[in-house]
């Protein structure tokens, strides 16, 4: 059993930065690939980035060079550093244990002037 709790969302101006955190409970965290997804109103949920237990990362093309995913296995936490934010990054961001039904509740990110 894994429980995921996201934090760090909010309102930011275009070009700004936010750092999302996802705290995980449960002993499986260290063996799981973790991912961030997002869903904007009227759109399907889409994968943003993922990180394996060994730290190998993968990014969607629309965030490459702007977002960085990382994890701290000692703290059971995965992060998403988001820089150079654009209005089209506005969405609810969800943390997910890859290939499982473990999802967080989501955190709202709004990019607007």
Textual characterization of the structure:
It is a single chain. With 113 residues, the chain is an all-beta fold. It is built from no helices and ten strands. It has strands at residues 3-7, 10-12, 18-25, 34-39, 46-51, 57-59, 67-72, 77-82, 91-97, 107-111. The chain has a six-stranded mixed beta sheet with strand order 2-10-9-4-5-6, with no helix packed on it. A hairpin with a 4-residue loop joins strand 7 (67-72) and strand 8 (77-82). The termini are far apart.
- In percent, how helical is the residue content? under 10%
Q: What is the overall pLDDT average?
A: 94
How is the largest sheet built, in terms of strand order?
A: 2-10-9-4-5-6
Overall body shape: globular
Low-confidence stretches: none
Question: Helix and strand layout, with pairings?
Answer:
Elements: E1 3-7, E2 10-12, E3 18-25, E4 34-39, E5 46-51, E6 57-59, E7 67-72, E8 77-82, E9 91-97, E10 107-111
Parallel strand pairs: 2-10
Antiparallel strand pairs: 1-3, 3-8, 4-5, 4-9, 5-6, 7-8, 9-10
Can you give keywords for this protein?
mainly beta; four-stranded antiparallel β-sheet; 113 residues; six-stranded mixed β-sheet
Provide a short characterization of the protein structure.
With 113 residues, the chain is mainly beta. Helix content is 0%, strand content 49%. The protein has strands at residues 3-7, 10-12, 18-25, 34-39, 46-51, 57-59, 67-72, 77-82, 91-97, 107-111.
């Amino acid at each position: 059993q894994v429980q995921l709790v996201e934090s760090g969302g909010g309102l930011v101006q275009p070009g700004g930065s936010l750092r999302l955190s996802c705290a995980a409970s449960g002993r499986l965290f260290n063996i799981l690939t973790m991912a961030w997804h997002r869903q904007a109103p009227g759109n399907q949920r889409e994968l943003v980035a993922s990180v394996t237990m060994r730290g190998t990362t993968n990014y969607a093309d629309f965030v490459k060079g702007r977002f960085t995913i990382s994890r701290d296995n000692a703290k059971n936490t995965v992060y998403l550093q988001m820089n150079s934010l654009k209005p089209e990054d506005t969405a609810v961001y969800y943390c997910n244990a890859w290939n499982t039904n473990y999802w967080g509740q989501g955190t709202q990110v709004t990019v607007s002037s």
